[in-house]
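Hello,

Our lab assistant flagged a job as stuck in the queue for most of the afternoon. It eventually completed. Since we weren't sure the result was trustworthy after the delay, we are filing this so someone can double-check. Below is the sequence as submitted and the structure that was eventually returned. Let us know if re-running is recommended.
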Amino acid sequence: MPPDTVKKSGWAVMGTGTVAAEQMVSAIRALGLSPLWVASRSETRANHFARDADIPRSTTDPHRAIDDPHVAFVYIAAAVERRPFYIRAAASAGKHIVCDGPIAATARTAAELARTCEAAGVVLAISQRARASAVHQTMERLVADGAIGALRSLTILRGGPYHPEPTRWSSRPVDRPDIFLEMCVEDIDLARFLTGEEPGEALAIADRNPTEGMPDHLAYVLRMGETLFQAHESYSTADMESIVVAAGSDGILIASGTLGHRGSGTLVRRLEGRNEFIPIRERDAYLATLEQFIDAVEGRSPPLANGADGYAALAAAEAVMKSAKRGRVVAT
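-- returned structure --
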């Protein structure tokens, strides 16, 4: 798609519940593009979102929006269980897609969606804020440049009481999804991004909520090439600031407060027993995601995260959950 065509092409937004949807609409406009439609299962919410975000059209029929010839791109912010439907509909109409992660509830479905989009010749980009974080982008470059020597270990630590993603609707039911969809997929995707390696064997231990049958407290290790990735993810500990630690043969990178919804966080490099604060140029994560998405549509570079990335993270997360249930090492 030529650059001038991109600038003239409109967007359809699927889903209105999250604050992330509003932020993505702002990022779309920051690139000089136009949100034309918003679709929701609730007519009232679609109308309210369209009015608040100054989007000209709203509907409860997603096909009206997706099939509009002025729409070239679809952004999907709907609940996880509805994302596959919207992805298939957009791909069938030949529209390029940005979807919040994870794109599906299972790796099998994610793989099918990636194949569907590839066959249709459309870009499927996944909005992963952890990848798009300016701190993590800087961290990845420093690791790749050998700023801490050979990467040997990657650790992600976070926890606290469950807080759902901010929503527009205070009356929306608070459904706590499985921890592997909220945290595990995001953390594994970030580990793949920072190490450039694919997950191998998984070993996990989890506490389970006896009434809801889902893990509240999870710790696991994944082999990522020559790097060991360790994670602690919990809804049953005291609230803590997230920490991402990349330990190399020569030094250490420590990102603090970069996960969740509390801000951009900080990055420190430790060399020879001394800490060095790494200055980070603030960048909007949603805008960064869209900029690379447009580059992918125009054939200049791949999106920041694509369907194959979504499948890989979900497959590894499923291996983590199997290991936690079986009490033994599981191959991804």
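-- support follow-up --
The delay was a queue issue, not a problem with the job. The result is valid. The longest strand covers residues 199-208. Confidence is low (pLDDT under 50) at residues 170-174.
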